[in-house]
Amino acid sequence: MIVKQIIEVVRECGQILVHADRTQAGTQIKHGQSNNLVTQYDKAVQEILRKKLLDIVPQAHFVGEEEDVHESIAMGDAFIVDPIDGTTNFVKDYKCSAISVAMTHDGIQEIGVVYQPYLDELFYAQRGKGAFCNGIPIHVSDKPLNQGLTLFGSASYYTELTDESFRLLRLCFDRSMDIRRSGSAAVDLCTIAAGRAELYFELRLQPWDYAAGALIVQEAGGTVTRVEGGDIDLTKPCSVLAVGTGVDIEFLRTET
Ligand code: IPD
Ligand code: CA
Fold first, then answer.
1. How is the beta sheet containing 178-180 ordered, strand by strand?
2. Do residues 212 and 64 lie in contact, with contact meaning Cβ atoms separated by under 8 Å?
3. Is the CB of 87 under 6 A from ligand 1?
4. Among 65, 182, 168, which Cα is nearest to 116's?
5. CATH number, residue 207
6. Distances (CA, A) of 191 to 71, 133, 187
7. What are phi and psi of 115, to 5 degrees?
8. 205: Cβ below 6 Å to ligand 1?
9. 81-136 pLDDT, tens per residue?
10. What angle do CA 199, 165, 85 make, to 5 degrees?
11. DSSP symbol at 65
12. pLDDT band at 23 (very low <50, low <70, confident <90, very high)
C-alpha cells in the first residue's frame, strides 16, 4: 500500500533530524532574508525523499521546498514535500519540526503524511478514509473559541503582512483562552486535526507547508480555507485558516 511505504520513508527521514549533528548543519540564509534559513539537512532529507518517493511512484512529479524551479502538480500524480518544516526551530534545537509529504492526483491531495520526530508523532490521512496519529483515529475539537486555543503563524518572511497578522491575532486572542506559536505550520495543522487547539491561521504559506496538513485536518472533520474565504490553492502561496467544528469564523472576515 502506497501510504504505508510513504510513512516508512518519512519515519526514516525523521531519524536523520533527531540524530543530526547541528554543528555541521551548514546553515545559510535564503532569498536574502536573515530569518529564512536552509541547512544541509533540509537539502539532504529532500534528496532522500525525492529518491525514495519516486521509487514508490516513479511517474509522479516532485515539488520540494528546497529547489528553485517547481514542476506543475496540475496533472497526474505529484509529491509536495517539505523536508524540514520548522527549519528555524531545527537550527535553534527547539525540537518542534516536521517532515511533510502530500501526494496529489490532478492537483488534489489524496494522501497527507506529517511526522514530528521529536515526539514520535506520525499523522496521516487518505482522502475519504479519516485521519490518524500513530495509527489512532483523530478528530478536531468541537469547542467554541472561548473554550479554545488559537495557533498562529507570523508569516515572518513577508513583513508587509505583519500588521495584519497581529491585528487578526489580537481579534483571536480576545476571543480564545490563549494563543500559541509553534514555528511549524505542518505541526500546527496536525494540532488542529488532533483536537488540541481550535483555530490556526497564517497569512501566507507555501503549498509544501500545508498540502499534507490540510488534508489531515479535513479528514479529521475540520475545515480549511483561506483566511479571506475561498479554497486553499496548492499551486501558489496562500493564506490558511483551519478550524474545528465549534468555531464561528465570521469575526475574522467582518471585523475591521
Ligand atoms: C515555516 C514554518 C513556520 C511558518 C512559516 C513557514 P519553514 O516553514 O512552517 O511555522 O510560520 O511561514 O515558512 O521555512 O521552517 O520550512
Ligand atoms: Ca515549511
1. 178-180, 149-153, 199-205, 238-243, 223-225
2. no
3. yes
4. 182
5. 3.40.190.80
6. 30, 10, 6
7. -120, 125
8. yes
9. 999 999 999 999 999 999 999 999 999 999 999 999 999 999 999 999 999 999 99
10. 65
11. T
12. confident
Is there a single domain that holds both residue 10 and residue 131?
yes
Same structural domain, 151 and 106 = no
Q: Is the CB of 203 under 6 A from ligand 1?
A: no
The predicted pLDDT at position 256 comes to 56
Ligand nearest to the CA of 207: 2
Atom number of ligand 1 nearest to Cα 204: 12
For the entire predicted model, the pTM comes to: 0.97
Answer whether residue 153 shows pLDDT above 70.
yes
Ligand 1 pocket test: pick from 31, 63, 209 the residue with the most ligand atoms within 8 Å of its Cβ: 209
CA distance 23 to 151: 31
- Is the C-beta atom of 209 inside 6 A of ligand 1? yes
Domain count, the chain: 2
- From 87, 105, 137, the end of a domain falls on 137
Domain encompassing residue 173: 145-255
